[in-house]
C-alpha cells in the first residue's frame, strides 16, 4: 500500500476495525501508642503500718482515696489518648508515590501525560471520554481543560498521545483529530487531516520547530516540518501490506494479523517497536528503513507490550505477568526472563527513571521496582489497595514521574 503522497492519500481502510487498546509520602512511622505509666498501689503498701497516712485515717479510707485517685488519673490519660489523630489509611499513603485525585468521572482511562519543557510545572493529562486536564503546579492539582476546536462536532474523543518541544505541542486522538499549540498550550488549534488516513493515530512526537512525527495503528509513519500543513510518509506501506509480501518468510501468526498494533513505543533516537494486535509477533522500524521489520517471538506466551530500556535495549512483557529483557542493546530477538512478583496479574508497562532504576505497573495495582537495570524486581506493596489497573509509567525526568490507570487513577512520584 503506497503512502508517499504528501496529502496522506492512501487506500481507504475503513473496513478494518481498529483494535489499539492502551495498556498502554513517605511512609508513616506507625509508632505504637502506649498507655501512660500508672503507679498501681500494691496490696502490701496499702496495709503497711508505717504508711504516712495510716496514722491519721483508717486503712479502708486510705485505700479508697488512693484507688479513686489512680482510677481518675488513668481515665484522664485514656481520654487524652482517644483524642489523638489516627494514622492515615495505607491506601492514601504510598511509599514513593502518592495518589492525585482528579476532577473527572469514574471510568475514564488515562492514556498520556506531558509537560512543557520550559515550565515543568505546566502539563497536560489525556484520557478517554474527551478528557484533557491541565496542571500549573507540577501535577499536584489538575483542572478540566476545554478546547473549543475539539468540541465543535458531536464526538466523544479518545485522546491518545501528547508531546511538547519547546512551546510547541501536539495532541492526537480518535476519531481522527490533531491539535497543535505554539504557545505552551494556552491555545490549541485543530489541524485538518485526510479522511483516507490509514488507521487511527495512536502516537505523536514533537521533533523540532514546527516538526512532528505521527504513527497510526496500521503502521503508517508520517513526518511534518511545516506545522502539520503537509505530511510525508516515512514508510512505503502499511504493516499488513508488508506481511502480505513476506508471509512466506516464516513469521508465525502473520496470517491471523488484523492489520493493527496493540502497542507502539519510540526510543529517544527515533526507533520504534510495536506489538501485533494478537501478541503473536512484534515489529521494529529504524529511520531510513522503507518497511517495518517483523520478528517472531521467542517466548511461548503472547506478547503484552514492549519498549526501550534506558541503556538502549528492549524490555518485553507477556500475558500472565512475565518480564523479559533483551541481551545487549539495540534491536534483538534474544531475550531472557527475569523474576518478578506480579501476584499473577499482568504487567502492562515499564518506565525507566534512570539507567538503573525503573518501575513496572500492571493489573490490580501491581507496582514493581528495580534498582539494577531490571535484573531484579521487588514489589511495592503500598499500591496493593488501589482498586485499578495501572496502564502506563511515565517519567518526565528523574524527579518527576507518573503512573496512569483506569477509573481516573493517577499516581505521582515523590522520590
Automatic annotation (TrEMBL):
GO process terms (BP): photosynthesis
Domain Photosynthesis system II assembly factor Ycf48/Hcf136-like residue range list: 92-413
GO CC, one annotated term: photosystem II
Entry-linked SUPFAM superfamilies: Oligoxyloglucan reducing end-specific cellobiohydrolase
The organism's place on the tree of life at top rank: Eukaryota
Pfam families: PSII_BNR
Keyword line: Photosynthesis, Photosystem II
Record protein name field: Photosynthesis system II assembly factor Ycf48/Hcf136-like domain-containing protein
Biological source species: Gossypium raimondii
Amino acid at each position: 500500500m503506497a503512502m508517499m503522497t504528501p496529502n496522506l492519500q492512501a487506500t481507504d481502510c475503513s473496513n478494518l476495525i481498529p483494535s489499539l487498546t492502551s495498556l498502554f509520602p513517605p511512609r508513616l512511622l506507625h509508632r505504637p501508642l502506649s498507655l501512660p505509666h500508672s503507679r498501681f498501689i500494691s496490696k502490701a503498701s496499702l496495709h503497711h503500718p508505717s504508711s504516712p497516712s495510716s496514722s491519721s485515717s483508717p486503712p479502708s479510707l486510705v485505700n479508697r482515696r488512693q484507688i479513686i485517685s489512680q482510677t481518675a488519673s488513668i481515665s484522664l490519660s485514656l481520654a487524652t489518648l482517644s483524642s489523638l489523630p489516627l494514622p492515615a489509611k495505607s491506601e492514601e499513603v504510598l511509599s514513593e508515590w502518592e495518589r492525585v485525585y482528579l476532577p473527572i468521572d469514574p471510568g475514564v482511562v488515562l492514556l498520556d501525560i506531558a509537560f512543557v519543557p520550559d515550565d515543568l510545572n505546566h502539563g497536560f493529562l489525556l484520557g478517554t471520554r474527551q478528557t484533557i486536564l491541565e496542571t500549573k503546579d507540577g501535577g499536584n492539582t489538575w483542572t478540566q481543560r476545554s478546547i473549543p476546536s475539539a468540541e465543535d462536532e458531536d464526538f466523544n474523543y479518545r485522546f491518545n498521545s501528547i508531546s511538547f518541544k519547546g512551546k510547541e505541542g501536539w495532541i492526537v486522538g480518535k476519531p481522527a483529530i490533531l491539535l497543535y499549540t505554539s504557545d505552551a498550550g494556552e491555545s490549541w488549534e485543530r489541524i485538518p487531516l485526510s479522511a483516507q488516513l490509514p488507521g487511527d493515530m495512536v502516537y505523536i512526537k514533537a521533533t523540532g520547530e514546527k516538526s512532528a512525527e505521527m504513527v497510526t495503528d496500521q503502521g503508517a509513519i508520517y513526518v511534518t516540518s511545516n506545522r502539520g500543513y503537509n505530511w510525508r510518509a516515512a514508510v512505503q506501506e502499511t504493516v499488513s501490506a508488508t506481511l502480505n509480501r513476506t508471509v512466506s518468510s516464516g513469521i508465525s501468526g502473520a496470517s491471523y494479523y488484523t492489520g493493527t498494533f496493540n502497542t507502539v513505543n519510540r526510543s529517544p533516537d527515533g526507533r520504534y517497536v510495536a506489538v501485533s494486535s494478537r501478541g503473536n509477533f512484534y515489529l521494529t522500524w529504524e529511520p531510513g528503513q522503507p518497511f517495518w521489520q517483523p520478528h517472531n517471538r521467542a517466548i511461548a506466551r503472547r506478547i503484552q507490550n514492549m519498549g526501550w530500556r534506558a541503556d538502549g535495549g528492549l524490555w518485553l512483557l507477556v500475558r500472565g505477568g512475565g518480564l523479559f529483557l533483551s541481551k545487549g542493546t539495540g534491536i534483538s530477538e534474544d531475550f531472557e526472563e527475569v523474576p518478578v512478583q506480579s501476584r499473577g496479574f499482568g504487567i502492562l508497562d515499564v518506565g525507566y527513571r534512570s539507567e538503573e532504576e525503573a518501575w513496572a505497573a500492571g493489573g490490580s495495582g501491581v507496582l514493581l521496582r528495580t534498582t539494577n537495570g531490571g535484573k531484579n524486581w521487588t514489589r511495592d506493596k503500598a499500591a496493593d489497595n488501589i482498586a485499578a489497573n495501572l496502564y502506563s509509567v511515565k517519567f518526565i525526568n528523574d524527579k518527576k514521574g507518573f503512573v496512569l490507570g483506569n477509573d481516573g487513577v493517577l499516581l505521582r512520584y515523590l522520590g
